[in-house]
Input
Amino acid sequence: MDYFKRTRVARIIVDEQVALNQEIIILGWVRTIRVSKEVAFIEINDGSCIGNLQVVIGNPDNFPVLKDILTGAAVRAVGKLVESPAKGQKYELAVTELELVGAADQSYPLQKKRHTFEYLREIAHLRPRTNTFGAVNRTRSKIAFAIHKYFHDRGFYYIHTPIVTASDCEGAGDMFRVTNFDLNKAPEVNGKIDYHQDFFSAETFLTVSGQLEAEIYAQALGDVYTFGPTFRAENSNTSRHASEFWMIEPEMAFCNLDGDMEIAADFLKFLFKYALDECADDMAFFGKWVDKTICDTLEHVINSDFERLTYTEAVKILEKTNQKFEFPVGWGLDLQSEHERYLTEKVLKRPVIVYDYPKKIKAFYMRVNDDGKTVAAMDVLVPKIGEIIGGSQREERLDVLKAHMKEKGMDPGTLEWYLDLRRYGSTPHSGFGLGFDRTLMYITGMANIRDVTPLPRVPGWAKF
Output
Protein backbone atom coordinates (compact mmCIF):
# COMPACT_ATOMS: atom_id res chain seq x y z
CA MET A 1 0.00 0.00 0.00
CA ASP A 2 3.04 2.27 -0.33
CA TYR A 3 2.83 3.25 3.35
CA PHE A 4 6.49 4.25 3.51
CA LYS A 5 6.47 5.88 0.08
CA ARG A 6 3.48 8.14 0.62
CA THR A 7 3.68 11.90 1.06
CA ARG A 8 1.59 13.44 3.83
CA VAL A 9 -0.57 16.36 2.73
CA ALA A 10 0.86 18.57 5.50
CA ARG A 11 4.30 18.37 3.87
CA ILE A 12 2.80 19.90 0.75
CA ILE A 13 0.34 22.46 2.13
CA VAL A 14 1.87 23.46 5.48
CA ASP A 15 5.60 22.75 5.19
CA GLU A 16 5.95 23.20 1.41
CA GLN A 17 8.72 20.60 1.36
CA VAL A 18 7.74 18.83 -1.87
CA ALA A 19 9.20 19.97 -5.19
CA LEU A 20 6.99 20.73 -8.17
CA ASN A 21 6.73 18.10 -10.91
CA GLN A 22 7.84 15.43 -8.45
CA GLU A 23 5.83 12.21 -8.59
CA ILE A 24 4.22 11.47 -5.24
CA ILE A 25 1.76 9.03 -3.68
CA ILE A 26 -1.17 10.27 -1.58
CA LEU A 27 -3.20 7.97 0.68
CA GLY A 28 -6.31 9.51 2.21
CA TRP A 29 -10.06 9.95 2.34
CA VAL A 30 -12.33 11.72 -0.13
CA ARG A 31 -13.91 14.92 1.17
CA THR A 32 -15.60 15.91 -2.11
CA ILE A 33 -15.67 14.64 -5.68
CA ARG A 34 -16.86 16.34 -8.87
CA VAL A 35 -16.81 14.56 -12.21
CA SER A 36 -17.57 16.01 -15.64
CA LYS A 37 -16.86 14.72 -19.13
CA GLU A 38 -13.60 16.66 -19.42
CA VAL A 39 -12.17 16.62 -15.91
CA ALA A 40 -12.67 15.28 -12.38
CA PHE A 41 -11.70 16.96 -9.11
CA ILE A 42 -11.25 15.10 -5.83
CA GLU A 43 -10.45 16.75 -2.51
CA ILE A 44 -8.36 14.34 -0.42
CA ASN A 45 -7.54 14.70 3.27
CA ASP A 46 -5.14 12.33 5.02
CA GLY A 47 -5.55 13.71 8.55
CA SER A 48 -2.15 15.42 8.69
CA CYS A 49 -3.52 18.98 8.46
CA ILE A 50 -6.67 21.05 8.01
CA GLY A 51 -6.14 21.50 4.29
CA ASN A 52 -7.24 19.12 1.56
CA LEU A 53 -5.16 18.36 -1.50
CA GLN A 54 -7.04 18.71 -4.75
CA VAL A 55 -6.28 15.98 -7.26
CA VAL A 56 -7.14 16.64 -10.88
CA ILE A 57 -7.96 13.89 -13.34
CA GLY A 58 -7.98 14.68 -17.03
CA ASN A 59 -9.92 12.37 -19.36
CA PRO A 60 -12.13 10.80 -16.66
CA ASP A 61 -13.21 8.10 -19.12
CA ASN A 62 -9.76 6.57 -18.71
CA PHE A 63 -10.44 6.08 -14.96
CA PRO A 64 -13.51 3.81 -14.70
CA VAL A 65 -12.92 3.53 -10.94
CA LEU A 66 -14.35 7.07 -10.59
CA LYS A 67 -17.89 5.74 -10.78
CA ASP A 68 -17.31 3.82 -7.52
CA ILE A 69 -15.68 6.67 -5.57
CA LEU A 70 -17.98 8.65 -3.29
CA THR A 71 -17.45 11.01 -0.37
CA GLY A 72 -15.82 9.16 2.54
CA ALA A 73 -13.99 6.58 0.43
CA ALA A 74 -10.32 5.77 1.03
CA VAL A 75 -8.17 6.19 -2.08
CA ARG A 76 -4.62 5.97 -3.38
CA ALA A 77 -3.61 8.66 -5.87
CA VAL A 78 -0.33 8.89 -7.78
CA GLY A 79 0.70 11.91 -9.80
CA LYS A 80 2.88 14.97 -10.12
CA LEU A 81 2.58 18.05 -7.95
CA VAL A 82 1.87 21.15 -10.06
CA GLU A 83 0.94 24.77 -9.41
CA SER A 84 -2.80 25.26 -9.20
CA PRO A 85 -4.59 27.91 -11.24
CA ALA A 86 -7.53 27.82 -8.82
CA LYS A 87 -7.97 30.41 -6.08
CA GLY A 88 -7.32 29.44 -2.46
CA GLN A 89 -4.79 26.71 -3.16
CA LYS A 90 -1.17 26.77 -4.23
CA TYR A 91 -0.72 23.22 -5.48
CA GLU A 92 -2.70 20.34 -6.91
CA LEU A 93 -1.94 16.80 -7.97
CA ALA A 94 -2.13 15.87 -11.65
CA VAL A 95 -3.17 12.23 -11.34
CA THR A 96 -1.72 9.37 -13.37
CA GLU A 97 -2.99 6.50 -11.18
CA LEU A 98 -6.11 6.26 -9.01
CA GLU A 99 -7.12 3.33 -6.83
CA LEU A 100 -10.15 2.79 -4.62
CA VAL A 101 -8.83 1.36 -1.34
CA GLY A 102 -12.02 1.32 0.72
CA ALA A 103 -15.46 2.17 -0.64
CA ALA A 104 -18.07 4.35 1.07
CA ASP A 105 -21.70 4.34 -0.02
CA GLN A 106 -24.28 7.12 -0.09
CA SER A 107 -25.21 6.53 3.56
CA TYR A 108 -21.91 8.08 4.70
CA PRO A 109 -23.09 10.59 7.33
CA LEU A 110 -20.42 13.30 6.87
CA GLN A 111 -21.60 15.02 3.73
CA LYS A 112 -20.48 18.51 2.70
CA LYS A 113 -22.43 20.58 5.22
CA ARG A 114 -21.99 21.80 8.78
CA HIS A 115 -23.00 19.33 11.46
CA THR A 116 -23.78 20.23 15.06
CA PHE A 117 -21.40 19.05 17.76
CA GLU A 118 -24.35 17.28 19.41
CA TYR A 119 -24.93 15.22 16.27
CA LEU A 120 -21.23 14.46 15.88
CA ARG A 121 -21.06 13.08 19.44
CA GLU A 122 -23.50 10.42 18.27
CA ILE A 123 -20.98 9.32 15.62
CA ALA A 124 -17.79 9.86 17.59
CA HIS A 125 -16.15 7.06 15.58
CA LEU A 126 -16.40 9.21 12.42
CA ARG A 127 -16.14 12.77 13.72
CA PRO A 128 -12.28 12.83 13.65
CA ARG A 129 -12.65 13.08 9.85
CA THR A 130 -14.22 16.53 10.15
CA ASN A 131 -12.12 19.70 10.12
CA THR A 132 -12.94 20.60 13.73
CA PHE A 133 -12.24 17.24 15.29
CA GLY A 134 -9.21 16.61 13.12
CA ALA A 135 -7.81 19.87 14.48
CA VAL A 136 -8.77 18.99 18.06
CA ASN A 137 -7.09 15.61 17.96
CA ARG A 138 -3.93 16.84 16.24
CA THR A 139 -3.67 19.51 18.93
CA ARG A 140 -4.33 16.94 21.65
CA SER A 141 -1.47 14.80 20.34
CA LYS A 142 0.97 17.71 20.10
CA ILE A 143 0.15 19.08 23.56
CA ALA A 144 0.57 15.59 25.03
CA PHE A 145 4.06 15.55 23.50
CA ALA A 146 4.70 19.05 24.86
CA ILE A 147 3.88 17.85 28.39
CA HIS A 148 6.48 15.10 28.17
CA LYS A 149 8.98 17.49 26.59
CA TYR A 150 8.58 20.07 29.35
CA PHE A 151 9.26 17.62 32.15
CA HIS A 152 11.92 15.60 30.32
CA ASP A 153 13.90 18.73 29.51
CA ARG A 154 13.86 19.67 33.21
CA GLY A 155 15.03 16.34 34.58
CA PHE A 156 11.69 14.92 35.75
CA TYR A 157 10.99 11.18 35.55
CA TYR A 158 7.74 9.85 34.08
CA ILE A 159 6.00 7.51 36.54
CA HIS A 160 3.18 5.09 35.67
CA THR A 161 0.91 5.05 38.71
CA PRO A 162 -1.80 2.38 39.17
CA ILE A 163 -5.23 2.69 37.59
CA VAL A 164 -6.63 0.25 40.17
CA THR A 165 -6.15 1.52 43.71
CA ALA A 166 -7.28 0.97 47.28
CA SER A 167 -6.67 4.65 48.18
CA ASP A 168 -9.13 7.54 47.95
CA CYS A 169 -6.78 10.46 47.38
CA GLU A 170 -9.40 13.20 47.51
CA GLY A 171 -11.62 11.71 50.21
CA ALA A 172 -14.74 12.59 48.22
CA GLY A 173 -15.91 8.99 47.78
CA ASP A 174 -16.95 9.44 44.13
CA MET A 175 -15.05 6.38 42.95
CA PHE A 176 -15.83 3.47 40.63
CA ARG A 177 -15.53 0.14 42.45
CA VAL A 178 -13.48 -2.64 40.83
CA THR A 179 -14.62 -6.19 41.53
CA ASN A 180 -14.97 -9.60 39.92
CA PHE A 181 -17.85 -10.58 42.19
CA ASP A 182 -21.18 -11.63 40.74
CA LEU A 183 -23.08 -8.66 42.16
CA ASN A 184 -26.10 -10.86 42.80
CA LYS A 185 -24.04 -13.36 44.82
CA ALA A 186 -21.35 -11.29 46.56
CA PRO A 187 -20.07 -13.12 49.67
CA GLU A 188 -20.87 -11.49 53.00
CA VAL A 189 -19.56 -11.55 56.55
CA ASN A 190 -21.74 -10.10 59.30
CA GLY A 191 -24.04 -8.54 56.71
CA LYS A 192 -21.24 -6.78 54.81
CA ILE A 193 -19.52 -7.71 51.56
CA ASP A 194 -16.36 -9.73 52.24
CA TYR A 195 -13.79 -8.09 50.00
CA HIS A 196 -11.12 -10.49 51.26
CA GLN A 197 -12.62 -12.96 48.78
CA ASP A 198 -12.46 -10.48 45.91
CA PHE A 199 -9.82 -10.54 43.17
CA PHE A 200 -7.37 -8.26 45.01
CA SER A 201 -8.42 -9.43 48.49
CA ALA A 202 -9.38 -5.83 49.24
CA GLU A 203 -11.93 -3.17 48.30
CA THR A 204 -10.50 -1.50 45.20
CA PHE A 205 -11.45 1.35 42.88
CA LEU A 206 -10.48 3.12 39.69
CA THR A 207 -8.05 5.87 40.60
CA VAL A 208 -9.10 9.50 41.00
CA SER A 209 -5.46 10.64 41.17
CA GLY A 210 -1.92 9.31 40.95
CA GLN A 211 -0.65 11.86 43.44
CA LEU A 212 -0.20 9.70 46.52
CA GLU A 213 1.73 7.08 44.56
CA ALA A 214 3.78 9.80 42.83
CA GLU A 215 4.92 10.94 46.27
CA ILE A 216 6.60 7.54 46.72
CA TYR A 217 8.82 8.17 43.74
CA ALA A 218 9.42 11.85 44.47
CA GLN A 219 10.93 10.68 47.77
CA ALA A 220 13.37 8.51 45.83
CA LEU A 221 14.00 10.15 42.45
CA GLY A 222 13.49 13.82 43.32
CA ASP A 223 11.23 15.19 40.57
CA VAL A 224 8.59 13.01 38.91
CA TYR A 225 5.32 13.38 37.04
CA THR A 226 2.35 11.24 36.12
CA PHE A 227 0.24 11.61 33.00
CA GLY A 228 -2.61 9.17 32.65
CA PRO A 229 -6.33 8.45 32.93
CA THR A 230 -8.30 9.11 36.10
CA PHE A 231 -11.93 8.42 36.93
CA ARG A 232 -14.69 10.11 38.92
CA ALA A 233 -18.09 8.57 39.62
CA GLU A 234 -19.56 12.03 40.16
CA ASN A 235 -23.02 12.22 38.59
CA SER A 236 -22.44 15.63 37.05
CA ASN A 237 -23.60 16.25 33.50
CA THR A 238 -22.04 19.68 32.90
CA SER A 239 -19.93 20.73 29.94
CA ARG A 240 -16.78 20.61 32.14
CA HIS A 241 -17.20 17.18 33.74
CA ALA A 242 -16.30 13.74 32.40
CA SER A 243 -16.20 10.38 34.14
CA GLU A 244 -12.85 9.50 32.55
CA PHE A 245 -10.24 12.17 31.99
CA TRP A 246 -6.47 12.55 31.88
CA MET A 247 -4.42 14.28 34.54
CA ILE A 248 -0.88 15.63 34.69
CA GLU A 249 0.49 15.50 38.25
CA PRO A 250 4.10 16.52 38.89
CA GLU A 251 5.59 15.94 42.33
CA MET A 252 8.80 17.64 43.46
CA ALA A 253 10.94 16.71 46.48
CA PHE A 254 12.66 19.48 48.47
CA CYS A 255 10.15 21.95 46.98
CA ASN A 256 7.97 24.31 49.01
CA LEU A 257 4.77 26.12 48.01
CA ASP A 258 6.64 29.02 46.39
CA GLY A 259 8.45 26.60 44.10
CA ASP A 260 5.20 24.80 43.34
CA MET A 261 3.55 28.04 42.24
CA GLU A 262 6.53 29.03 40.11
CA ILE A 263 6.63 25.70 38.26
CA ALA A 264 2.85 25.67 37.73
CA ALA A 265 2.86 29.11 36.08
CA ASP A 266 5.89 28.29 33.93
CA PHE A 267 4.37 24.98 32.83
CA LEU A 268 1.11 26.61 31.78
CA LYS A 269 2.90 29.30 29.78
CA PHE A 270 5.02 26.65 28.06
CA LEU A 271 1.98 24.65 26.94
CA PHE A 272 0.16 27.71 25.61
CA LYS A 273 3.22 28.93 23.69
CA TYR A 274 3.78 25.45 22.30
CA ALA A 275 0.19 25.40 21.02
CA LEU A 276 0.58 28.75 19.24
CA ASP A 277 3.99 27.84 17.78
CA GLU A 278 3.56 24.18 16.88
CA CYS A 279 -0.16 23.99 16.12
CA ALA A 280 -0.37 27.24 14.17
CA ASP A 281 -2.63 26.01 11.35
CA ASP A 282 -5.08 24.36 13.71
CA MET A 283 -5.02 27.33 16.09
CA ALA A 284 -5.86 29.62 13.15
CA PHE A 285 -8.81 27.34 12.42
CA PHE A 286 -10.03 27.55 16.04
CA GLY A 287 -9.61 31.33 15.92
CA LYS A 288 -11.78 31.55 12.82
CA TRP A 289 -14.51 29.00 13.52
CA VAL A 290 -14.60 28.28 17.27
CA ASP A 291 -13.45 31.29 19.34
CA LYS A 292 -12.15 34.43 17.65
CA THR A 293 -10.36 35.54 20.83
CA ILE A 294 -8.55 32.27 21.58
CA CYS A 295 -5.07 33.24 20.37
CA ASP A 296 -5.22 36.60 22.17
CA THR A 297 -6.33 34.80 25.34
CA LEU A 298 -3.34 32.47 25.26
CA GLU A 299 -0.94 35.32 24.43
CA HIS A 300 -2.29 37.28 27.40
CA VAL A 301 -1.52 34.40 29.77
CA ILE A 302 1.93 33.82 28.24
CA ASN A 303 2.91 37.49 28.59
CA SER A 304 1.46 38.07 32.06
CA ASP A 305 3.14 38.03 35.44
CA PHE A 306 0.90 35.83 37.59
CA GLU A 307 -0.46 37.80 40.56
CA ARG A 308 -0.30 36.05 43.94
CA LEU A 309 -3.00 36.56 46.57
CA THR A 310 -3.70 34.73 49.79
CA TYR A 311 -7.17 33.26 50.07
CA THR A 312 -7.87 35.75 52.86
CA GLU A 313 -6.88 38.69 50.62
CA ALA A 314 -9.01 37.34 47.78
CA VAL A 315 -12.07 37.03 50.02
CA LYS A 316 -11.63 40.58 51.29
CA ILE A 317 -11.50 41.90 47.70
CA LEU A 318 -14.64 39.98 46.77
CA GLU A 319 -16.50 41.08 49.90
CA LYS A 320 -15.82 44.76 49.18
CA THR A 321 -17.11 44.67 45.62
CA ASN A 322 -20.63 45.63 44.61
CA GLN A 323 -20.74 42.70 42.20
CA LYS A 324 -23.78 40.44 42.61
CA PHE A 325 -22.65 36.80 42.87
CA GLU A 326 -24.83 33.72 42.64
CA PHE A 327 -22.85 32.01 45.41
CA PRO A 328 -21.99 33.70 48.72
CA VAL A 329 -18.49 34.90 49.57
CA GLY A 330 -17.07 34.46 53.04
CA TRP A 331 -13.99 33.21 54.82
CA GLY A 332 -14.19 29.43 55.05
CA LEU A 333 -16.26 29.01 51.89
CA ASP A 334 -14.69 27.66 48.72
CA LEU A 335 -14.27 30.08 45.84
CA GLN A 336 -16.58 29.42 42.89
CA SER A 337 -15.81 29.95 39.19
CA GLU A 338 -17.67 33.27 39.19
CA HIS A 339 -15.47 34.54 42.04
CA GLU A 340 -12.28 33.30 40.39
CA ARG A 341 -13.19 34.85 37.04
CA TYR A 342 -14.06 38.16 38.69
CA LEU A 343 -10.60 38.30 40.24
CA THR A 344 -8.80 37.50 36.97
CA GLU A 345 -11.01 39.42 34.53
CA LYS A 346 -12.28 42.46 36.47
CA VAL A 347 -9.98 43.13 39.41
CA LEU A 348 -6.45 42.13 38.42
CA LYS A 349 -6.96 41.49 34.67
CA ARG A 350 -4.29 38.82 34.61
CA PRO A 351 -3.79 35.21 35.81
CA VAL A 352 -3.88 34.89 39.59
CA ILE A 353 -2.54 32.31 42.04
CA VAL A 354 -4.59 32.12 45.23
CA TYR A 355 -2.90 30.31 48.13
CA ASP A 356 -3.20 29.46 51.84
CA TYR A 357 -6.76 28.12 51.84
CA PRO A 358 -8.77 27.22 54.96
CA LYS A 359 -7.81 23.79 56.29
CA LYS A 360 -11.42 22.60 56.53
CA ILE A 361 -12.12 22.84 52.80
CA LYS A 362 -8.93 21.17 51.57
CA ALA A 363 -7.56 17.61 51.48
CA PHE A 364 -5.85 15.80 54.34
CA TYR A 365 -2.40 15.67 52.70
CA MET A 366 -1.91 19.46 52.44
CA ARG A 367 0.67 21.03 54.77
CA VAL A 368 -0.85 22.80 57.75
CA ASN A 369 0.40 26.39 58.14
CA ASP A 370 1.65 27.83 61.41
CA ASP A 371 -1.69 29.53 62.08
CA GLY A 372 -3.36 26.10 62.34
CA LYS A 373 -6.29 27.39 60.28
CA THR A 374 -4.93 27.32 56.75
CA VAL A 375 -2.96 24.92 54.56
CA ALA A 376 -0.26 25.52 51.95
CA ALA A 377 -2.60 24.99 49.03
CA MET A 378 -2.73 26.99 45.80
CA ASP A 379 -5.02 27.35 42.79
CA VAL A 380 -3.95 28.91 39.48
CA LEU A 381 -6.78 31.01 38.04
CA VAL A 382 -6.98 32.21 34.44
CA PRO A 383 -9.47 34.44 32.60
CA LYS A 384 -12.57 32.82 31.07
CA ILE A 385 -12.71 29.74 33.34
CA GLY A 386 -11.13 30.44 36.72
CA GLU A 387 -9.21 27.55 38.27
CA ILE A 388 -7.07 25.55 35.86
CA ILE A 389 -4.43 24.11 38.24
CA GLY A 390 -4.76 23.02 41.85
CA GLY A 391 -1.83 22.05 44.04
CA SER A 392 -0.18 22.22 47.43
CA GLN A 393 2.85 21.62 49.54
CA ARG A 394 2.35 18.17 51.08
CA GLU A 395 2.42 17.56 54.80
CA GLU A 396 5.83 16.01 55.54
CA ARG A 397 5.48 15.92 59.36
CA LEU A 398 4.24 12.54 60.60
CA ASP A 399 2.53 13.74 63.75
CA VAL A 400 0.75 16.63 62.02
CA LEU A 401 -0.38 14.40 59.15
CA LYS A 402 -1.83 11.77 61.51
CA ALA A 403 -3.67 14.44 63.49
CA HIS A 404 -5.06 16.01 60.30
CA MET A 405 -6.29 12.64 59.03
CA LYS A 406 -8.12 12.02 62.28
CA GLU A 407 -9.72 15.49 62.05
CA LYS A 408 -11.02 14.47 58.62
CA GLY A 409 -12.50 11.28 60.05
CA MET A 410 -9.88 9.07 58.39
CA ASP A 411 -8.16 6.06 59.92
CA PRO A 412 -4.39 6.67 59.53
CA GLY A 413 -3.88 2.91 59.54
CA THR A 414 -5.50 2.61 56.11
CA LEU A 415 -2.57 4.52 54.60
CA GLU A 416 0.30 3.08 56.62
CA TRP A 417 2.58 3.05 53.57
CA TYR A 418 1.90 6.78 53.07
CA LEU A 419 2.85 7.45 56.69
CA ASP A 420 6.06 5.48 56.17
CA LEU A 421 7.17 8.12 53.70
CA ARG A 422 7.13 10.53 56.67
CA ARG A 423 8.96 8.10 58.94
CA TYR A 424 11.94 7.43 56.70
CA GLY A 425 13.79 10.43 55.29
CA SER A 426 10.82 12.73 54.79
CA THR A 427 11.40 15.94 52.84
CA PRO A 428 9.33 19.02 52.11
CA HIS A 429 7.64 18.29 48.80
CA SER A 430 4.98 19.81 46.58
CA GLY A 431 2.93 19.10 43.50
CA PHE A 432 -0.13 20.03 41.50
CA GLY A 433 -2.70 18.63 39.13
CA LEU A 434 -3.65 19.89 35.69
CA GLY A 435 -6.63 18.36 33.90
CA PHE A 436 -5.47 17.59 30.37
CA ASP A 437 -8.93 17.68 28.80
CA ARG A 438 -9.90 20.98 30.43
CA THR A 439 -6.58 22.44 29.33
CA LEU A 440 -7.40 21.42 25.76
CA MET A 441 -10.77 23.16 26.10
CA TYR A 442 -8.91 26.32 27.07
CA ILE A 443 -6.37 26.02 24.25
CA THR A 444 -8.88 25.24 21.49
CA GLY A 445 -11.83 27.32 22.66
CA MET A 446 -14.09 24.27 22.57
CA ALA A 447 -16.95 24.70 25.03
CA ASN A 448 -17.63 21.07 25.98
CA ILE A 449 -15.23 18.51 27.42
CA ARG A 450 -16.97 15.85 25.33
CA ASP A 451 -15.57 17.55 22.24
CA VAL A 452 -11.88 17.46 23.21
CA THR A 453 -12.02 13.83 24.41
CA PRO A 454 -11.73 11.24 21.63
CA LEU A 455 -14.36 8.85 23.01
CA PRO A 456 -15.93 10.56 26.05
CA ARG A 457 -17.33 8.74 29.07
CA VAL A 458 -19.94 10.77 30.94
CA PRO A 459 -22.96 9.86 33.08
CA GLY A 460 -25.32 7.80 30.97
CA TRP A 461 -22.88 7.49 28.06
CA ALA A 462 -20.04 5.01 27.45
CA LYS A 463 -20.35 3.97 23.82
CA PHE A 464 -17.54 2.68 21.62
Residues 131-153 form the longest helix (23 residues). The chain has a mean pLDDT of 95. The chain has two domains: 9-111, 127-162+210-451.
